[in-house]
Design goal:
Elements: H1 2-12, H2 20-31, H3 44-54, H4 59-66, H5 70-84, H6 89-98
């Protein structure tokens, strides 16, 4: 139950919570050198959309935040998937972490 409480508190404080298994994967990804140059081919707007996707924002939230239509957000998402050869939100999020578009949340201290 302690882990659940930590997760709820982190989210309620506007943060992100990663369970220990995910945190281990993120740590491994962050320690690997970046081998992907596709990030250089993204537009500034695509980078903004990628960041918001990785932060868990919905298309509607992204559209409102960037003052663009939902259809435009979906077009950017499609372009991101094509340019990065990633498919789905999870893969785009991993790509954002690998390319340091978004920082991984600190790992919770589980006492192990």
């Amino acid at each position: 139950m302690q882990e659940t409480e930590k997760a709820i508190r982190a989210v309620m404080d506007g943060g992100t919570y990663l369970g220990t298994g995910v945190a281990d994967i993120v740590r491994r990804i962050m320690s690997q050198p970046n081998q992907d140059d596709a990030i250089e081919g993204l537009t500034d707007r695509e980078r903004e959309v990628l960041l918001l996707i990785a932060e868990g924002a919905s298309s509607k939230e992204i559209a409102a935040k960037l003052s663009i239509s939902i259809k435009t957000v979906e077009t950017h998402r499609t372009n991101l998937m094509e340019k990065t050869n990633r498919h789905g939100i999870a893969e785009l999020t991993r790509y954002a972490i690998e390319n340091k578009v978004i920082k991984a949340a600190p790992t919770p201290d589980t006492g192990h």
